[in-house]
Design brief:
- By secondary structure, the chain is an alpha/beta fold.
- It contains 7 helices and 7 strands, in the order αβαβαββαβαααββ.
- It has a 7-stranded mixed β-sheet with strand order 3-2-1-4-5-7-6, with helices on both faces.
- Helix 1 packs across helix 2.
- The termini are far apart.
- About 5% of the residues have low confidence.
Length: 193
């Protein structure tokens, strides 16, 4: 998603916050046109990458961009109904998708992501948090950028960390905010279902 000019600098920040070690299985939920997957595939050759998106057009644009990279698999799915066995992934990432989801779907998606993660696995959620500056408040408050105030309100009230904690994740900030986007790292503890 290149919303509000989020491009390479944003992708680089996400990649840094992920700090992949190599050999991990990584799921990008709401992978869009595949920009993040392309960057990860280029820099982490031994990583197994899977992207899911609900939008067929986005997936075909991603497939064209990724040009048949064998380490990347794309499939059509919704965040709240991931077609993977439990404990399939070491790392899950989602960027700029959660503000589109009503709170009920946010919770369902977080639950599905937690299910798909191995114990000790981590989920990087990069999305709009509590606005830091007046300009950001005005921009985000304009509403024209977003589909539905209710969906965005949970994000803007700083609720994402609480929703993650409620699902049983340990949550920390993985990086300083970037243009009102917060980087939350949620870890699935060992010994939890």
């Amino acid at each position: 998603s290149t919303l509000m000019g989020f491009g390479r600098p944003f992708v680089r920040r996400v990649e840094t916050a992920l700090s992949l070690g190599g050999g991990e299985a990584v799921l990008d939920v709401g992978s869009g046109t595949g920009s993040l997957l392309a960057a990860l595939a280029a820099h982490h050759r031994d990583t197994r990458l899977v992207g899911v998106d609900a939008d067929e057009r986005m997936l075909s644009r991603a497939a064209a961009k990724l040009g048949g990279m064998r380490s990347v698999h794309l499939c059509r799915a919704y965040a709240q109904a991931l077609p993977f066995r439990a404990a399939s992934f070491d790392v899950v990432v989602s960027t700029l998708i959660f503000h589109h989801l009503p709170t009920g779907l946010k919770l369902a998606a977080i639950g599905e992501i937690r299910r798909a993660l191995k114990p000790g696995g981590r989920f990087l959620l990069a999305d709009f948090g509590r606005p830091q500056t007046l300009t950001q408040r005005l921009l985000l408050g304009a509403g024209s950028l977003f589909d539905g105030r209710e969906n965005t309100r949970a994000n803007l009230a700083g609720k994402l960390p609480a929703l993650l904690a409620q699902a049983g994740f340990r949550v920390a900030e993985a990086a300083p905010p970037y243009r009102a986007v917060q980087f939350l790292m949620a870890v699935k503890d060992h010994g939890t279902k």
